[in-house]
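--- STAGE predict ---
source: upstream dedup step, 1 unique chain passed
mode: sequence only
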Amino acid sequence: MNVLHTWAGLVVGALLFAIFWMGTLSVYDNEIDRWMAPMTRVAMPDKPISFDALRGTYDAAVAARARSWTMLQPTERQPVVRIVYRDGPELVSRYFDPVTGAALPETGTWAGTRFFYPFHYRLHLKAWDIGEWLVGIATMAMLLLCVSGIVIHRKMIAEFFTLRTRQKSARMVLDLHTVAGVLGLPFNFMIALSGLIILSITFFPSGWQSSYPDKKSFNEEAYSAYSRPKANKPGTLVSLDELAQKAQQIWDGSKPWAIVVQHPGDAAAFVTVYQSFDLGIVRSAPAIHFDAATGAVLHQSHEMRPIAQAQRFLSGMHQIQFRHWMLRALYFALGLFGCVLILTGFLFWLQSRRRRHAAEGRPGVRVVEAVAVGSTAGIIVASISFMVTNRILPLGVSVMGIERYALEIWVFYLVWLATFAHAWWRPQAAWAGQCLAIAALAVLAVALNWVTTGDHLLRSISVSHLWPVAGVDFGLLALASTAFGVSRWLLRAERPAGAIAPGFSRAGSHG
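--- STAGE serialize ---
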């Protein structure tokens, strides 16, 4: 079990940290969206806007021959109206003022919901589902690490209350690794298992292929889904507000949250009206399907099959889209504990082998250290650089045909690659240097938000609809303080001759 725990962590540790870090940021993806798209920093309206008020965008979707058109009403976490449809290969996502219905400027960024969130389960590698398979392999390794860690630390409870912070040695790092592991063990296991279950159809397609002729039949029986083919004839659309009112009557007064029109402009188009699912854990919402031309009810969603219900419950536990601020904060904290767990695992491996590898002339420690620095501190540097770039670039800018959102993504990946190169080139200074970079960039991000929008921390705290912006600013400043403190500790740990500090011993500098 010790060998399994060591090698499983060493092989997939870099990937696991990226998944945990991006997943932790995704807990507040909507809040990060509002920070990176200042035009969406509006107050929650007293009443929802009419669905028919934005009928013009539906006509644009029809002209683009979009497969579907979606309108989302404002929520507490995203108090703007959102319209989504696909114009050829391009996904069109537009925001509108929830009171006047006026179009807001293009956000020009993928921000949290379109960059951080998909990264944590797909790595933005869509071809052949490679990203999901890599994440699945890393998730299986996480389950192995949880189980083997319990076996290795037989005296887990006693070790949990033993944290020797004054010792600048591998012992202190191991204590911190154990404490982070014990605190986050139930969460880590639940997150890993539920993540596999969410993607189970990708990993185990034989589960439905053995019993259903196609995926459509499976979805209809398991999730009470509804669909019908296009008629390839022009069609009309009744009033969306009338359909929303019908659905509200059927639901005994519960208000609709979203409307989706499938096959816009076609004679076989149908409209699906959804309730919000933020009041329950299950990642599913009651839905009613109407004929687009007549408004007749075609299908009502009913109770899902037990297995599907369990799958959607675990999906809801993993994705935490329900309305619970305290639990969301707990998820964020436990996600950070997971990052600390992986980081300290790397550090313990490096500290316990640095002198022996140097004496034997083996390059293993230097390779692992470069990977560890770049995949932990480096991805944090890249993430904050992504946010800093967002506040520097003006709206509508493009360079050599590369749009603003793509420029932000390019900066993220180029900075991330640079941190790996820096860790290989300067192994002795990489840990402290990149921690200082995190601190400086985080403070710069907060300052740029103030300069470019006028929403400084004190103002954001005093205005209720700017609290999410204040939360992101506060998180950046807390990260800056922590990173600066860690860099100071690392620099102090380097001074005594022969001290074993992560990435700073003189033996470590020779690999």
